[in-house]
Design brief:
It is an enzyme of class 2 (transferase). The chain is α/β, with parallel strands linked by helices. It has a single domain, classed as Rossmann fold (3-Layer(aba) Sandwich), CATH 3.40.50.620. 42% of the residues lie in helices and 19% in strands. Strands 3-2-1-4-5 form a five-stranded parallel sheet.
């Protein structure tokens, strides 16, 4: 399941992008699953301004701290600060063979666009089950509710 496929030689570089804000079990699950599918795993941690532009949310934890947290858990081989929303730009910098996303992207306009962009580069898109019970959005809502009480 893990190593080089028929068209790949050398180590398979995997890339798992995410905000990784309010680090939770869903983030851990995604990183653990991605680790099984590649030889070298790079986590792309989305910059604060990119999060704001693409999700409309300012991360609670600053980029430098999110990079440090993801690197410190010992699952990834490297971290990369995504300073643009373009995964093509990330591919140019990192040179990954596989990109990992939650299955909440599968079949959506953004997922299909990602698949098309990555196919043109020879990159495989692999989807993992999205952890429904925990998300940074759900944590933000719970914290806001507690603060309002």
């Amino acid at each position: 399941m893990k190593k080089s496929g028929p068209s790949m030689s050398g180590p398979v570089i995997g890339y798992v992008p995410g905000a990784f804000d309010l680090f939770h079990i869903g983030h851990l699950n995604a990183l653990r699953q991605a680790r099984q599918w590649c030889d070298v795993l790079v986590a792309g941690v989305v910059a604060d301004e990119v999060c704001l532009d693409t999700k409309g949310v300012q991360p609670t934890v600053p980029l430098a701290e999110r990079l440090e947290i993801v690197e410190a858990i010992g699952i990834v081989d490297a971290v990369y600060a995504e300073n643009t929303a373009s995964k093509i730009d990330s591919w140019r910098d990192v040179g990954f063979h596989r990109i990992f996303k939650g299955d909440d992207w599968k079949g959506t306009a953004k997922g299909l666009r990602l698949e098309q962009d990555m196919a043109a580069l020879g990159v495989e898109v692999t989807y993992f089950p999205y952890t429904l019970q925990t998300s940074s959005t759900a944590l933000r809502k719970a914290l806001a509710h507690r603060g309002a009480s």
